[in-house]
Each structure stands twice: as structure tokens, then as C-alpha cells.
Fold each of these.
Amino acid sequence: MKGELTRQELFMRQHKSHHRQIAFLRLLLLVLFLIAWEVSARTGVIDSFFFSSPSKVVALFVSMCRDGSIFPHICITLFETFASFLLVFLVSLIASTLLWHSGKLSEILEPYLVVLNSLPKSALAPLFIVWLGTGTKTIIVAGISVAVFGSVISFYTAFRQCDPEKITLIYTLGGTKRDVFQKVVLPSSVPLLLSTMKVNIGLALVGVIIGEFLAARKGLGYLIIYGSQVFQLNLVILNIIILCIIAMGFYKGIQVIEHRIRKRMQL
Amino acid sequence: MTDSYLLSLRDINYSYHTLFGETKVLDHLSFGVKEGEFAAIVGPSGCGKSTLLSIIAGLLHPEDGTISVNNPDGSFSYPRIGYMLQHDHLFEWRSVYNNVTLGLEIQNRLTDERKDYVNKLLSDYGLEQFKDKRPNELSGGMKQRAALIRTLALDPQLLLLDEPFSALDYQTRLSVSADICHLIRQTGKTALLITHDLSEAISLADRIIVLSKRPATVKCELPIRLTVKDHSPVAARNAPEFNGYFNQLWEEMKDEG
């Protein structure tokens, strides 16, 4: 039967070609968009002063890379986002563990958490500036404030969703409440915690950019506001594109971590 | 009074309380379990059988009544209880081995002696080659055997079995119950089985305690003597006395349904 494909090989081949097709069409969409943008800017269909154009954005990026002026901004935004993300994770884990541990506490705090979660966090930013001044600290706090309340609620909900019979099992094996948390509640919540973390990284970035709009001299958010004030729309669009890439990078990073944890726990 | 009982319950009352009122579940319930005995509890569904086991296991506290312990060695310590639930509840994030040693891990008793015992049980029940596998790679019967090993690893004096076979298909159910029966007879452990399957109760137990519908009291007790050589559940079903006991139980349960 040499030369002929088995059914399995045929299936594998179809699977691969499907994925290649999707990847190709994705790229094609981007390229077509960029071409349409560039052409309409050059032919004057859109005003490139307001809408910029791919070539102008690239030119600006190259020149900012040459004089190195873009890197401190990227670094500070990355650092602030990462710091808020980590702090959100720690605070949520500790707070939701306490809420899980004490049913009374969670009942008392529930309405406050709901209100704080639905509050538009940008409304808090001016307060943070007055309290903490302008600078990295304020921006990290702004980043935390956007993600933390929703994250605490999600973590706590994940803990609460644990199968009560599995909890009974731990008690029948002579375990304490601490064992229940360590052996069942925490490990069974891992998938939900990971998906919450994926949302959090995006929210932390939102908070950091809001913070930089209002209270920074550095960072991509600052460059966007600065660019719009001096009508440098090339700068604004360049920074938005960089933000897209950063957001994608963070998301992929968490996906890799998620994949590794799932593989290790064999979930 | 009831010296031969390892554990005796006297006048146990228990009610569930909600905002809509009180539901009396157990009403002056009294019975005992002898050392080395295999007792079964049958009763209409929802009569509070599981509540009763939870009380014996110490997960719930009776509102009234006493549970007294009479160890053969004269000590007053509460017997070590092994509680087997309806579903295996093996954790997917642990290997089979780490699942069966969960109780030992929790109680900090992972000694070499205990590990050897667990390994012996694993090989007795044909689970040795699945030690490092995940629970989802086991069949339903193997999972329930693993759950049994997890319970036995703690070397309980009293085994509480809360319908441990009801989630299995009929064939697996017979073979798993044969395994458990064999093990309990072999080691002389005291066991209390809850079931709604009358033939299962007759084929496994030395004595059947029939509960009334809610609020549950002991309706009658029925000692079982079957003239069979081996105590396998299949052989027991063929014993000449089997049908007589079955009809007797059926009559008792009929007015309670």
C-alpha cells in the first residue's frame, strides 16, 4: 500500500491544511487593510494629517528607535502593567481566601465589593493623583484598581463552586478546613483562576494607560495624550499599535503559562 | 446493657431547620453495631439514612441522644471511621497513588508501613499498573476500588458505606461488592452499609436494620443466615433462604414506600 495515505494521515493532512488556511487568511486581512489604508492616504481619500498612514507610522517608529526615545516609554508601561498584574493576583488570592474562610465576612462585604466592582474606576484616578502624587506609584494603583475588585469576586466565586461532596470527603478523611482549602478548593479552582488572570492582564493595562493619561511624564499612555495635544497623530497611532502588540504578548504569555500548568496538573 | 456492641446509638433525634420550618429526620433512633459485624441499613429513599451515617462519622451532631462506644479492649476512644461515599470523588489533578494516599497525607501518617499496605491493596485489586495514571483512565469499577483503598489506607475500625455501588452498572456493581465483601470478611472489620437495593443488603449483610419513612425510627431488625459456603454476593443470591428474606423485607418496606 505504499504511496497511498492511511485514513489517519489523511485526517492529519486535512487538519494541517485547515490551520494553514486560517493563518493565511488572517495575515491576508491585515495586509489588505494596511494596503487600503496606505493607498487611500496617498490618493487623498482620507487626510493623512488626521489618519496617518502605515508608511508614516513606520518612519516615525524607525526614527524613534534610532534616537532611542521610544524605549523608556515602552519599558515603563510594561513595568507598571506587570507590577499591577502581580499585585492584583496576590491581593485577590489573599482576599478571596479570607472571604472563603469566613462566610460571615463575605456576607458583610458582598455589597461593597459589588459597588466597587461596578464603579467606573477612572473616576478614582483623580483621587489617586491627589493622594499619591503623579508618578509610577499612582499609575500602578490605578492599574490595580481597575482589575482587583472583579478579580476578587471571580476568585471567590471559583472557590465557592467547589463540589460540596469533595469537601465532605476531606472531612471524612479527618481533614480540617485548611486541608479542604489546600487539597480540594484551590486545585479545583485553578482553571477558573487562570481564565480570570487572562482578563486581569488586559484590565491592568487599561488602568495603567488611564493612569498615564492623567498623571505621567513617561509611558505609552502619556505619549498618546501628548501626541493628540500637539496634533502628532502619527505618534498616537504608533503608540496604539505598540499597545496592541503588548496586549497580545501578555495574553500569549499567560496562555503559555496556562498550558504548562494544565499539562502539569493534567487537567 | 448492650455490651457486645462496638457502637450503640440511643434515642438519636435530628432535624433540619429552614426558614419554612423544621423537618424531623431521625426520631428516637436506637440501634447498635457489633464488633466484626456487617450490618446493612435499608429504608425508603429520603428517610435520613445518609444523615444517620454523617452523625456516626461525626460530621453532624445529634440534637438529642447518645452514641456510646464499647471497644473490645475496654478503651473509650471513638473508633477510627472509614467513610465511603456514593461517588469515588477521585481528584483529577492527582495520580491514582496520590489519591489513595490522600487520607494518610492529611493525617500525616504516610509511614513506610502504611505505604506498604497501600501498595499491597493496589496489587490485590489489580490497580498496581495504574498507580501513576490519572483517575480518568480508570473504569468505573476501578475508580470505586481506588476509593475503597483510600478509605482502607487509614485502617478504620468501622467502615461506613453510603450506597457505594449505586453509581455503578450492574455487572461492575456485583464484582465491586464481592471485593468489598471479601475484604471485610477477611479482615473482620465492622461495617455499616446503607443501600436501597434489598438483594444487595441480603447478600452482603449479617443483619439488616429496616428504617421507617421520615422521621426515621428502627422499624425492625432482621438477622440474615444464608447456607452458602463462600460469602460472595452471587452465591448468596442462590442460597435457599434468599427469597424468604427478600419477601419478608419487601413486606416490611411496602407500607413505608
Amino acid sequence: MPTVSMTVNGQAVTGDIEARTLLVEYLRENLRLTGTHVGCDTSQCGACVVHVDGKSVKACTMLAAQAEGSDVLTIEGLADGDDLHPMQEAFRNNHGLQCGFCTPGMVMSAVDLLNHNKNPSEGEIREWLEGNICRCTGYHNIVKSIQEAATKM
Amino acid sequence: MYDFNYYKPGSLADAASALAGAEDGKIVAGGMTLIPTMKQRLAQPSDLIDLAAVGDLKGISSDGSSVTIGAMTTHAEVAGSSDVQLVIPALAAVAEGIGDPQVRNCGTIGGSVANNDPAADYPAACLALNATIVTNKGEYSADDFFTGMFDTALDEDEILTAVKFPKPDKAAYMKFPNPASRYAMVGVCVAQTGGAARVAVTGAGQDGVFRASEMEAALASNFAPEALDGISVSADDLNSDIHASAEYRAHLIGVMAKRAVAAA
Amino acid sequence: MTDTGIGASVKRVEDARFLTGRGSYTDDLEQPNQTYAYILRSPHAHAAITKLDVSAAKAAPGVVAVFTGEDMQVGSIPCGWQVNSKDGEPMKEPEHPPLAKGKVRYVGDQIAVVIAESLAEAKAAAEAIEVDYDIQPAVVDMNKALAGGTLVHDDAPNNLCYDWEIGDAAEVDAAFANAHHISKIDIVNNRVVPNAMEPRAAVGAYDKASGEYTLYTTSQNPHVIRLLMGAFVLQIPEHKLRVVAPDVGGGFGSKIYHYAEEAIVTWAAPKVGRPVKWTAERTESFLTDAHGRDHITHAELALDENGKFLGLKVDTIANMGGYLSTFAPCVPTYLYATLLAGVYTTPLIHANVRAVFTNTTPVDAYRGAGRPEAAYLLERLVDRAAREMGIAQDEIRKRNFIPSDAFPYQTPVALQYDSGDYMATLEKAQGMADVAGFPARKAASEAKGKLRGLGYSTYVEACGIAPSAVVGSLGARAGLFESANVRVNPTGSVTVFTGSHSHGQGHETTFAQLVSDTLGLPLDQIEISHGDTNKVAFGMGTYGSRSLAVGGEALMKAMNKVIDKSKKIAAHVLEAAEADIEFKDGKFTVSGTDKEMAFGEVALTAYVPHNFPHETLEPGLEEQAFYDPMNFTYPGGCHIVEVEIDPDTGVTTIEKVSACDDVGRVINPMIVAGQTHGGLAQGIGQAMLEGCVYDDDGQLITGSYMDYTMPRADDLPSFDTDTAVTLCAHNSLGVKGVGETGAIGSPPAVINAIVDALSGLGVTDMTMPATPEKVWQAIQDAKMPMAAE
């Protein structure tokens, strides 16, 4: 069994895994970080988005082995202790979530957007979210949340 | 997913020997197509050879009249490259429009070109821009490289290392995405270099990416949208599915081609 | 209004855990020593199983057990609603085994379950199962199904489940005979796949010591699952069966029903002596989550010379799929045909509905359930009638609205609407949509070669499901009340146990607001508990926009009982007459004096009853209430959609959505707007993007997000939503419901807008989903010279 080592939410982790283990499986099952979700099997829905070395990726379409040596950030590691990240705060302020299932991926994707583009237009936000599907909100309040976060990040 | 042996060689030579030595080895670049395919148990490689640690496959270089992009360069890196934006802005735009941001952060030009998905964007860009595909064994012109749907001139143990794009005078890519998958339902890349014009179409052809010769001839004499008036692509060899009939695809090729010429 | 009471946009309590990845969805749960189930499903839509050999799979690495329909001898998955045909015959209700017995009836039907140490091992072993199929022709098309030939179920001739009607056909025919104009329409209400983002999952566990089974499941109504599975399928008594629906990632109807996998994992847990976990892959969700809609209808509207509606005739065929899902039979009858009066005074209506079995995934309620189909039919037909008679779209509606002073209004199709003001929502929506500015916007579009259209929809729906006596008389096999238990803890905090279930709606906030408002408590002193049959006494769950109107009323009723008892306690302590105790702002006072007790003091006294009179005052402060509504509630409103079409490609862009809804009293405006947004996205999705496609062999072509078009952020605009409220006349809160309005009102507004944009070309029809190709084709067809007929 291959061994993988990486940093997840600031902590060094090591594990013996099957080569076929996806990053999302490693996070959810081995590390019990169940905030990262699986909503589809075709890499479309984005419920599994995490950051690997500062970039948003779909953890369902990356082998854990491919993340060897990487710095992984999941939704569990986004807040600073009890202080929500500005993006989390903005989602709460603007009712940017309902059932909460797509939310971790949506928030992680949105943080990556603002890392690239400090002041995105509504159109740029909507285009960026192509890889994140939400069935509850109609995206209206997600867009508003990201717009608010952009003023605070 | 079936299990497999995983290798992460540090050099191209090691990668090539691992590939040659494997019973049914596959190269994984960004994994954006291969991993979903394996998840659905539609592919069962014995060995997966990850090129991520092969340093010289990454990066973009430019001499002002061309850009060379390492196979492991991600779409996001191509889209964000000032060299690409300066020399061939249309190519940066192609990369910016591939998949979604997370796909662009992982997916690579080498993976996309080697896979030759009939709805992928890069094959159209390579063909229209007259790219040279560089491998560990030699070079191919784009015209020779793409040999049919999911089929290329690559030998089984050959590894794509870079793609070299000459600078065109003008170029642009217009995509009509499949509303569900967001792959190209019709994508048309046009380029003008000297007196010649090239038009490549992805997403539509039954055999994958192809050149629209009648359009090229018309654009060679007049590189303007109206030059394409009255030119229609036959629906005979085009795909038909629940999202678009062959006739609709044929029509969209005309519309996208004109819009690409206008934008070039 | 306090900042945590009724009417306040309180930030959601549940968000803290969801935003930090600490939600607890079914697949997140890990039971000690759990096993993993993988279900082998039929690749064929219709086949007899001639051989099923699981021996190799049983011997595969890591396999704990393999079970087939032969092994699982249990009851049939029941249907919760009986509809009788017009000749009095009960509907055909074929057997529905959790694991197929000799025959499969749709692609995805369960054949065997493999239980293993890991999911990968279970999947690998499933490939070793040998199945031989005698493949039979699949019946997919509803009209072909009704013609007989291939039968999905041998005991349902012509694949007919029932042939039902409402209204007097002869009277309606007489009205048509006197009509000035008759408008006709053929409608397909496209099948859609619900696609809650959390795939279904179920974990079954069995405790040998207590004999108790536990099922963790992605359900909108755990008590209903306990009832259906426990009593009918597995014969487990309720006191030995706990069903938990923890955090659930969206439902939209699809998680109401009792599914085979729930029974399979619960049944298998004691067999293998370990917990059994099953989680759907999205592909399985597409194949097995009950689908929505799927009606074919011909309808005719008779009008007089002033455009007043005289009568309506409707003939609908509704797809049930391969088996009857839990609520399927009531959707195209009592949730559809009873709404065909819409917001109009149409005096005579007749509807005939035939429900048909096909070799497709079962169809059941999906956000709106029947009411969207009724609204779509009516609003398309009214739009057409207006065009044919040369009457403006708003004018024809105004001429036929039920006037605001006519409530309660008895429709000719059984329902009695209690309140509404359709003119008010129409006029407010027109203002929001800047209808007056439309001609200028249309001209601007045309100047750049684009087409522009404006479409209306004025709708009413019935929710707050439902008065038990009424639905019982219509075939419901259960009452549709709701329960609430209010436990006042000794220190004055409150725990509410509700039978409603939140899977995105925000009950933990809205219900807490009701408590805060009523008992004067801060939110951090209130806990809303739901989703566990061992905690909540009983519940009918959340669907049909019923949580607030039924569950919220139950909560109000229980709180009133708490207040009544608290007054007794306060009267005893303050040595006053009970009748003199007033409760206000969280304090009990003796009227006309300065003697008072805070709510918390009463609570503590209730649990430290030093000198309660034994005969008249029990210790403790906890009250239970069941609320059965007097009537349905009737939200309604007006949606106006404006579109722009690129004629070169057929691409339609939604330029503006203006939705003014009457949802009754609004408890949390932020949440109400959010519900409306989500409903609009699903309605627009159905109208423009989503369509479930089967081929003639019954293979689902749209079986993943690669082929089924989910609305994404860049498919939609931001929405303009507002409310114009009339209060529900028969519940104490005056609430109606908001969960489904967006999905009901918007589809016809979208299609009417597209037809409006294309009307200049002579186009009169458009089907859902209005894809770019369909729109482009309509434009091409309109350009062609009229073909010889």
C-alpha cells in the first residue's frame, strides 16, 4: 500500500492507502473530515472542492497520492478558531445556503475566486461558479454573499 | 475504481520506461478525464504513471513568434500567462474557457491534446493555430496528430511533452457549450497567418476535430465574417444527440465561425 | 416586532455548523464495525430474470453477505394513497418488492445487494454475480402503454393504473356549445429529476440486546418511513424501530418516499450482525430517486365574447413509472385537477386523468407536485386564448380573476379558497417588472437583432397539506396533521420537538422565532429538535409547503398549552385567580397589580413544586399538541418573466424575473425570499434546461450531469421577489407557505415570454425545456413557407 503524507488544515498527516483512494475519500474516511461532500460521480457538482496548494480543486477527481506533499485546506480549516472566515460570515449574513450540502465546496470555490479577483462583477462570479451546483438557493444569495465578502477580504 | 500501481517518476526517461514496462499502463497528467473514467470503471489500467514530478514538462516559453507550452502546464497557467496573452491572446482565451475553474487548476494541455476528446477545446486550437506536438520521440504537425475521436498519432509508449504554437496574425475561438456538460457542442477556432486561414471545428464532428476547408478558402481571400455568407457545413458527418441535431450543429458552426472571425 | 420574533430576518441558527463543515449528513455517520452495501441494479428496462447466481460474489474477497429477492421475503413497498377509477374500481396497485422477484421493470430496479467490508469490495463482488435476462420490449411512451401489448405488470391491463375524473362532463359540454371562442392546447409537462445535492443514503443497524432496529436515512419524514417500512414491509413494531433523518441535503419531494434501500439495509443489519451502510452514487440517484411531473394533456377553454371563461375541459395522462411510489397516485388527481380553476372564476370544469405504468423510474411529487402542472396548463392556455382573441395578457386575467371580496370562494373542483388578492399581486408584479417600459426594451433588442418577450403567470396553489378528514375521504391512507412537543426546561430554556423536518428550509430558525415571539425568550434559550422518531412523538414530515402552516400551528398550540399551565402555576405562587394572570413580554402578571413572575421563574417552580396542590396542578412544564388544519392554504401570486432571444443560435436569456407572491404572514423575510429564489431556479430549470429523456428501450439518456442540464449560476439572473400578503383565514398565524411557489409560478411565465418573443414570427407554441435548438428550430419553421397539408 502506498503511503501518503500531506498537510491538511495545518496539520501533518500520513496514511497507508490503496493507490485508487481519491483525495475526498482520504479526507472523509481516513481523516474523518466529513465537511467535504460528494454530490456526483462526474466531477460536475463541486460539493467536494478543497484547496490544494492554494488552488481550488475537485477532491473527487484527484487521487490522494497526487496530493502527496501538498498543503490541503478543507472547509473545516477555513475559520480562524471560532471566528468565521469572511466568506463564511458573508454566506451566513446573506442566506447563501439552505440545505448546506453544496456549501463547503461553494465557499472554498468562492474563496479561490477572490484570491484571483478582488472585485468580481456579478457575471464573473456566476461564471466562476460553473463548477459548483446548488439546488436550493437559485444562486441569488450565493452571488450576494460573494459580493459582500469581496468588500471584506 | 479498480486498483492499480501508482508511479510518480522524476524524469521523462523513467516515465517512459515505466510506461513501457507496464502491462496496461496509462499516463495521468491532470487526470480530469482519466480519473472520472476510472471511477466509472470504464478504464482499468494496471499502472498509472503520474507525470507531475517530471519538472521539465511544466512551463511556458516564448520567443515572440511562437509559444511553447510544456505538457503538464495547466489550463489556468496558460490562461494566466502573460507570454501567451501577448503572443497568442486567442490561446489564452481558449484555456480560460475550458471546463470550470477547478478543472483549469488541474487539467493540462498535454492531457487534453493527447486524449483528443471530440468535444475538447485544445484540439481545435492546435489545428487552427497549426501547432506542433512534441513528444519524447519526435514531433507531429497538428494535422497529422489528430487521427480521429479519442485517437492520435501517439504510439502506446510515447509521451507528449510540449505543444508549440506559432504566432498567427489573428485568431479567435468561439464555443457553443453543451448546456449540461459544458463541453463544446460546437467550437470553432479560426486563425489567419500571412495569406492563409485555418478553421478548426470541435464538438461537432463524428470523427472528432476537423478543418472546414471551404471556410478556409473563403477566409483566405477575405478574412471577414461576410466571407462566410452562403457557406454551409454539411450535416452528414456531424454528431446528433439529445442536445443538438446534426443540422443544428452544422448551423452553429457557421454562426460560431463568423463570430470567431469577427472577434479575431 | 422584536429582532428575533415573527417578521424578523433572523440569521439562520443552523448555518454555523453547515458553514464550518460540521453538518451531519447520513453518509457522514460512521457506525462501529459498519459494512458497506452495493446494490446490483437492472441494466434493462423490462426483463425476466432467468438465472441469478450469487455464489461467486459470496466467495469474493471482503464479502460479508449477498442477498436477492429470494432471500428477502418481506412485504411489498406500500403506496400511501388510494385513488379510485370513475367506475368505482380501486387503482391497480402491483406488488413492489424491495429486491426484484423474477422480473425487473425499469433500469435501476434492485436485483441483489452485496454487503462487504469495503465499498470497493462490494462493488467488485457485484461484478461476479451472474444474471441472465429474458429481455422483453420496454414500454416507455404513455400513449403506447395505454394501447396495451407489452404489460409492465400482468395485473394492470393496458398498463392503466386508474381512469379518474372530476366535474360534470355534460355540463361542461353544454358550456362549450354556447362559447364565443374555444382555445385548445396540447401540453407536455416534461419529466424532471429532482437532484437534491445530497444523494440518498441509508444506514441500518440492529441492537441484539434491546431488539431495536435503527435506520439513519435521508428522509423528509422519518415517522412516515417508520410507519411504511415498519408496518408494511418489514413488520417491525414501532417501539423497536427508530428512524433518524439527520441533516438532509435537500429533498424537493424526492426524499418523502419509502425507498427499497431503506428496507434492504434495515433488514440486512441483523442478518449480518453489523450495521449496513448504503450511499447512492449520483448515477443511482438519477435512476432511482422518484422523478417528477411527466404529464401529457389536451385541454380546451371556452370563452364568451368578452373573454370570460365559461368552461374548461382537460384530458391528462400521467406517468407512474414502473411501480407506484408513496404519493404518486394523488399527484395528478387531488393535487392537480383540483387546482384547475386557478385564480379564475371558470364556472364549469371537467378533468379526466389516466395514470399509466411504464418501464421507467417511478414518478412522484416534486416541488409543487400537481400544482405546477395545473398552473402550467392553465397559464399557457390563458395566454393562448388572449392572443387568439386579441386581449392583452394582463387584461384577460383581470377579467377572470376571483375578486378579492369573493372569499371564501368555492371552486367547481372541490377546493374552497379562504383568502387571496390576485389583482394586488398582479399589479405589484407589473410594477416590479416595469411592464410599461417593455416596448422600449423590446425595440432596443430588435435594434441589435434580438427578439424580446414578456410572459405572465398568475397562479394559486394548495398547500399546508392537509385537513385529514378531507384527504382521508379522497384516499389518503394516513392523516396529515402535525405534532409538536414543547419542553420547558427547569432553568427556563425550551426544547421543541417537531414532526416537521428541515432539509434546507431553516426550521431551526423559523420555529425558534415562533417560540421567541410567543414565550419572550432569546434564541439561544431555544432548541428545535427534529428528525428522530425516538425524540419526536410523531410527525408527518415536511412536504407540500406544510411545515409552518401545519407544524408551526402545532407548535403554537403546544405553546398555548404551556402558557395555560404556566398561568396556573403563576396563579398558585402569586396567590391570585388564574383568570387574573396575564402573560406578556415573557412575564406573568396579576392584572392590575405589580405582582409578576418571569417565565424562567415559572419554569423552575414547575420542577421544584414545593407546595403544588396535588389535585389540580401537576409538576413539570411540557406540553404536546397535534394540529389538524381546517383547510388547505392557498398561496398565489404573479410571476412576470422577460426574455431575450438570439435568433442566430436560439439562445434564450432570462433578462428579468419579477415574482410577487402571497404566502400569508411572513415569519422570516430572508428565508421566504430564499425559498422563492430556489423555487424560481427549479421552475426556470424545468422550463428551459431540464428534461429527462429515455430512449425506446427504456434507457435513461439523461443519467448524469453530463447530459441532464442542471441550472448553474450563469444560467440564471438575480431575481426580483416580493410579497403582497393576505392572511390565511383558518390558522392562527395567518401563514400559507412558500416552499413551492417559485417552482409553480415560473415555468408558464418563461414559456409565455418565449412565445411572446417569437409571436411576431407566427410562432404559437413552445415545449419545455425550451432549449436553444428548439427555439432555433421554431424560428426556422416559422420562416419556411407553409407546407401543403
